[in-house]
Amino acid sequence: MSTEGFNPFRMAQAQFDKIADQLDLDESTRELLRNPMREYQFSIPVRMDDGMVKVFRGFRVQHNDSRGPCKGGIRFHPQETIDTVRALATWMTWKCAVVDIPLGGGKGGVICDPHNLSMREQEQICRGWVRQLAKNVGPLSDVPAPDVMTSAQHMLWMLDEFEQIHGAKYPGFITGKPVGMGGSLGRTEATGYGVIFTVREALKQMNLKPENHTMSVQGFGNVAQYAIKLYDQLGGKTICVSCWDQNDSTSYSFKKADGIDIDALLKITDRFGGIDKDKARDIGYEVLPGDAWIEQDVGVLMPAALENQVTAETIQKVQGGVKIIAEGANGPTTPEADAVISERGIFNIPDFLANAGGVTCSYFEQVQCNMNYFWEKEEVLDRLDTKMTSAFIAVSDLAKKQNLYMRDAAYIIAVGRVAQACRDRGWV
Q1: Active-site hit among 71, 107, 237, 256
Q2: Is 107 among the residues known to form the active site?
């Protein structure tokens, strides 16, 4: 999560300020888009398994809903902060806009560590979160989804609580639900696949082939796992992944020069994406320090963990052969690192474009729930590919036309669309 001295919301605002200047936005529009429209902070009392009551802190931030209901995940993390949630809600607004889906940006969280909570305790946190917000979220106003350390089961508990409170069925209230309970086929793969759809297009644009470029990934959660699988299918090879070890609170990188075997690694991975070090060594992996992923001599780097990972310091470790940085995580790259990436001519696929596959498929799930008709998996993924490819081409074309850094081009499209929606509504 956020490290000391790093404020993700200030970074999100700095990114916005730069684009507001380029778009010459008026002062009222800047003020409206620079800050969230609504914020909720609350306490969730839970009777723990030992009989004691523990109070957890919860959040929901609704950044902007000019283009449609707010949309964004709910994180369970011991280092969650309101500024992290504000930043993520802001980035969600731009993410929905850049792929042109009719939703706004929101984000939520609870300060807790699911590693140390029973399933019953986690259920009570989920239901308590909904009870605090039942009047402020819903299918027509704010649609939550899973995020870091939350799952389809958490979403189903939240849906059940929402429906009990309102006395009716609202399957479109929340996305990321289990398939068969209103969830969409393809949702599990969507974010990771979406990243690789954009990598595929970037390589194509650069006249490069996946089979000639290896990849190194930070993170081994859902996004990274499916990104690696699809990159393998395209003929590419991933040689290094890093992940957090909950047993000793340290991150490690796992390297195999001839390419990792994703299925073999998954067999020794816990439900939070942590790989067993000893078992990894037994099957031929080199276990390195956690930050070794960024030092690998590969063609594609993919930060797919948390924010503030590619910094002014760590970018110096990036090898000369790196052609693409594809941001599977939210806010992994600081503005200082962006300047170096641009100067070195590395093709950056910014987070709110690269990882928009998740929210795009969440939108598909919401649509399917609302019409009570569900598509086959192939149709979902084909629609996702079409959306991600179209968004990438639009951003890439603008970047080439105006000689812009990809992040700036994506922001210009996204901020421009949201600002226009605010003007059309008469808000500014």
Answers
A1: 107
A2: yes
